[in-house]
Here is the input.
Amino acid sequence: MNHLSKPSHCDFFSHLYIEESVKNEPLTCKIKEKFSDSKIIFIKHYKDVFNRPNQDFAIQSKSKNLILARREAPFLYEGSFYSDGFEYEHFFYTPSILGCLYDCDYCYLSGMYNSANSVFFVNTQDFFDAVLPYLHKPTLIAISYDTDTLAIESLSDHTKEWIEFAQKHPNLHLEIRTKSANFKAIKALHVSDQIVLAWTLSPQKIIELYEHKTPSLQRRLSTIKEAIDAGWRVRVCIDPVIYNEEFHELYPPLIEQLFATIEADKLFQLTLGSFRMSSVHLKKIKKLRRSDIAYYPYEVKENIVSYGKTIEQNILHVMLDKAMQYIEKERIRTWQLQ
Here is the structure.
């Protein structure tokens, strides 16, 4: 299991690209103050920078920059087939931030975007307004599909604003998926059953090989415990499982570590799922030539790459058996191809 490149220190946001139309927006000014040493470059439209062809994603990952822009509709998208909608009739994700500070080799973002930089849309109220027509019924919004909002929280209180917005609307539920250890950024907020904080966990060896710039397993576990002890609903996601010859030595012990850290009866849910991705995104990731993950002999079914039925069933069988030693099956959710 050899990794093709070494992680390096990332000097974030040496440059800020700012659309002319938002240069005087309050949020733009607030972010500019935080990066007073960054070079400011004014642009007409974020796509002129973010969507520019022939960018080197791998090189940009070593020194990411930030683009401040105004989002035009659509502000919501239907939840992806690759994700669990938890039986909500309305399940959406919101692209309020594009791009992630972290640099995980298996992330679909590197196969979807030309740029490793991040786009922050400063017109947050427009996203809130787009949600309102759906709130006559219970609605789930995933706010961290295209980024890790807690990782970038110091920029603008983005996660905090979404949580406070949800607390004004009883039918609005949020899933905030993260690998961050930055729970302190929202710790002082009022706890709400409408919010699920969902931490992705991987064995430490997988983190070191493939999840560059992310917090260690121990830091994530400590943060999860802190959030649970503070009364938040926490979902732990061992998803995606990265399968290799060390699967049995890495992943069942991860579940043991989890429940050695937290009290099982206080965990809201555990989700389990193996690696899957659009074949189009994987093809693009292969061109980056950064990681052996891209070159595994996956099976392809209806334009989805996965480990195939036999391996996938083995992953879920092993992980379910181990997890059910600690919590009942009703609180475990699994993802698998049908």
About this structure: Residues 15-335 form a domain with the pyruvate-formate lyase- activating enzyme fold (CATH 3.80.30.30). The radius of gyration is 20 Å. DSSP finds eleven helices and 18 strands in the chain.
